[in-house]
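Researcher: We plan to redesign the surface later, but first we want a full-length starting point. Tokens attached.
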């Protein structure tokens, strides 16, 4: 499978772009465990154009994680074009356009999945971004706005005509948000369409390599993208059988990576303690969501303590306590 000139091999697994999840440290761990492609957190086009520093920092990528994509979202064509040019200067391997985010603060304002209610504008943005940059441009979207508007089979051809190099389809409508089960039947229909020649990447409810293999077999997709199942589990891309101790070691490594990275690049005038706290914030969601700690009785209070921890030492003590609790019969 190829996107532009990027070669991925057969049946590659991609890490989905996710806000407050796919920071640099996590992406590097997912890459280590076999993710063929990773994406940054999605980035607001308007915030990029306004040079919002917290948004600009999301463009930081490392050669160790390549190939890596940067995903942008927005509803204004001019802003999306300018943002794509800014992103191109950051040096990713591709630019992805988000027409699938269902959350109210994005879709409710007409961006993300909200663009599915304005297909002419969606296509205009896609066409103009493709023409504005030299990098491959891809799109991630959903089946439609709701079950009365399942437009993906037609939309896929229209997006291909705009010049995109690959299409990722999440098997839900916007109205479903993340509820119910992902429906891959229309993803398979798009892939089987003889007029479609770009790679089709399937996304939705894949939680293991076996489920990914079944999706490849059943629907013929070119790649499978994994999202929420990666929370606190970058090893989901690998068949390596890790012990609980090894998994906790990886979570602690992720914490250290985030703190060190943010400390090295901390804002002018920012204290090291403040940078450490930001590094912890980047890690806590994974630590609270990881499946590793499911065997701990009454874990709720421990999770609350994780989410309230403000120093590396405090959080490391909690993790070590969890390690000991899991060793108990």
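Model: Full-length starting sequence:
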């Amino acid at each position: 499978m190829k996107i532009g000139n990027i070669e991925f091999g057969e049946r590659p697994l991609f890490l989905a772009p996710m806000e407050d999840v796919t920071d640099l440290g996590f992406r590097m761990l997912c890459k280590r465990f076999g993710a063929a492609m990773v994406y940054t957190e999605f980035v607001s086009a308007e915030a990029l154009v306004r040079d919002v520093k917290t948004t600009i920092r999301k463009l930081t990528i490392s050669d160790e994680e390549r190939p890596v994509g940067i995903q942008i979202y927005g509803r204004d064509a001019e802003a999306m074009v300018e943002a794509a040019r800014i992103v191109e200067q950051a040096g990713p391997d591709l630019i992805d356009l988000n027409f699938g985010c269902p959350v109210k603060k994005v879709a409710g304002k007409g961006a993300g999945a909200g663009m599915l209610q304005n297909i002419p504008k969606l296509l205009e943005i896609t066409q103009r971004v493709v023409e504005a940059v030299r990098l491959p441009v891809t799109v991630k979207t959903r089946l439609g706005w709701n079950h009365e508007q399942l437009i993906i089979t037609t939309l896929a051809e229209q997006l291909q005509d705009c010049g995109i190099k690959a299409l990722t389809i999440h098997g839900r409508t916007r109205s479903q948000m993340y509820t119910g089960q992902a429906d891959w039947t229309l993803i398979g229909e798009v892939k089987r369409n003889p007029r479609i020649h770009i790679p089709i990447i399937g996304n939705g409810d894949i939680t293991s390599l076996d489920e990914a293999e079944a999706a490849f077999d059943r629907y013929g997709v070119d790649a499978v993208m994994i999202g929420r199942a990666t929370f606190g589990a970058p090893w989901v891309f690998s068949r390596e059988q890790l012990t609980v101790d090894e998994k906790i070691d990886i979570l602690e490594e992720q914490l250290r990576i985030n703190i060190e990275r943010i400390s090295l690049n901390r804002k002018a005038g920012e204290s090291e303690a403040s940078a450490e706290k930001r590094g912890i914030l980047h890690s806590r969601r994974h630590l609270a969501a990881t499946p590793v700690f499911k065997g701990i009785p009454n874990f709720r209070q421990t999770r609350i303590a994780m989410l309230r921890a403000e120093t590396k030492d405090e959080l490391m003590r909690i993790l070590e306590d969890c390690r000991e609790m899991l060793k108990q019969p």
